[in-house]
């Protein structure tokens, strides 16, 4: 099993990428980790720590965070992201991981790796934290701003298969993000998607309101990228604000500092439930190969966990499983 990491993508690249790759190589000796990037910058970071299952692949260019995605992918053909995507396309590696420019990674997936037959639009599917610590897989959370009812159904099928293959769920529950739980609530797209999801090969449990997501009303949450990304950023902002307020309050007086010491372990457990690094990366589902997007601020732990995710997906033949189910099509599609 071989997995490529875009070593030049992300806020803390290449340092966090290298440390994450070293940790993954140590934990999974049966997996070859390929760091793709400027070898002149990568080799000094290894400092002689070069296990047999860690390889370097030189790429002379970098796609920056503010680059226009399509232009960057087309013009920077020797960028670390594009080279890693080409390795997936050509079968040199089974999966690639990047914390770089999301739009560019989506473009790399479409133009370099290739879209899966039968899939109209691939979807970004990160895990949203829940109070029980297990999380909800949500898609799409930003790859596509708009979606049709049929595309939402495809998201539901891909998300269900991911939960079964990667997380071992026998019958993942699928919910549709909406402004109310009633069947006829929502805009034209969600109202059209509801009856299609009822006949789709998934365990559809109905509409879900964003205020209930942390309670885990479903295992897979389906939405368009516009609404989904707003929900995601709202959750991230709220969590950040809550922890900032708690820190300020618990350090205000010696009484509150004493209280903080008493609840420190509990707060630590709660924070870990909300920590994106535990989930590692979000897959771009609907491509011909396995591509995972790590958070832009990913640290070494996040990259190591992304490798774990990729290993599980490859071991369970995720891409082929989605392709087979999508190819069945027909009865759940609109006339």
TrEMBL record:
Location of the protein in the cell: Cytoplasm
GO molecular function, one term: phosphate:acyl-[acyl carrier protein] acyltransferase activity
Catalytic activity: a fatty acyl-[ACP] + phosphate = an acyl phosphate + holo-[ACP]
Domain of life per record: Bacteria
GO cellular component: cytoplasm
Entries under InterPro entries matching the protein: FA_synthesis, Phospholipid_synth_PlsX-like
EC main group: transferase
EC number(s) on file: 2.3.1.274
Pathway: Lipid metabolism; phospholipid metabolism
UniProt key word Cytoplasm: yes
Chief localisation class: cytoplasm
Keywords: Cytoplasm, Lipid biosynthesis, Lipid metabolism, Phospholipid biosynthesis, Phospholipid metabolism, Transferase
Alphabetical GO biological process terms: fatty acid biosynthetic process; phospholipid biosynthetic process
Function: Catalyzes the reversible formation of acyl-phosphate (acyl-PO(4)) from acyl-[acyl-carrier-protein] (acyl-ACP). This enzyme utilizes acyl-ACP as fatty acyl donor, but not acyl-CoA.
Known partners and oligomeric status: Homodimer. Probably interacts with PlsY.
Family stated for the protein in its record: Belongs to the PlsX family.
UniProt xrefs under NCBIfam families: plsX
Protein name: Phosphate acyltransferase
Organism per entry: Paenibacillus mucilaginosus 3016
Gene: plsX
């Amino acid at each position: 099993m071989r997995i490529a990491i875009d070593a030049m993508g992300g806020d803390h690249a290449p340092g966090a990428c290298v440390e994450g790759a070293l940790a993954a190589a140590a934990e999974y000796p049966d997996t070859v980790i390929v760091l793709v990037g400027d070898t002149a910058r990568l080799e000094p970071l290894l400092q002689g720590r070069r296990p047999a299952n860690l390889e370097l692949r030189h790429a002379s260019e970098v796609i920056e965070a503010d680059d226009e995605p399509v232009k960057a992918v087309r013009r920077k053909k020797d960028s670390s992201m594009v080279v890693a995507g080409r390795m997936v396309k050509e079968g040199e590696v089974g999966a690639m991981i990047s914390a770089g420019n999301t739009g560019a990674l989506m473009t790399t997936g479409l133009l370099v790796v290739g879209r899966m037959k039968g899939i109209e639009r691939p979807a970004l599917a990160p895990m949203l934290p829940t109070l029980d610590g297990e999380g909800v897989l949500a898609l799409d959370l930003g790859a596509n701003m708009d979606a049709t009812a049929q595309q939402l159904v495809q998201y539901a099928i891909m998300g269900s298969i991911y939960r079964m293959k990667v997380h071992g769920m026998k019958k993942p529950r699928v919910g549709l993000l909406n402004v109310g739980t009633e069947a006829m609530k929502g805009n034209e797209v969600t109202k059209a998607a509801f009856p299609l999801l009822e006949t789709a090969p998934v365990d559809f449990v109905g509409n879900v309101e964003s205020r209930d997501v942390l309670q885990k009303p479903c295992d897979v949450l389906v939405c368009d990228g516009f609404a989904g990304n707003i929900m995601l950023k709202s959750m991230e902002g709220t969590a950040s604000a809550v922890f900032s307020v708690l820190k300020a309050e618990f350090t205000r007086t010696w009484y509150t500092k004493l209280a903080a010491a008493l609840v420190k372990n509990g707060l630590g457990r709660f924070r870990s439930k909300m920590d994106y690094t535990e989930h590692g990366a979000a897959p771009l589902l609907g491509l011909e190969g396995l591509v995972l997007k790590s958070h832009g601020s990913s640290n070494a732990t996040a990259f190591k966990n992304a490798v774990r995710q990729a290993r599980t997906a490859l071991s369970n033949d995720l891409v082929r499983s989605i392709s087979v189910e999508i190819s069945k099509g027909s009865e759940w599609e609109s006339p």
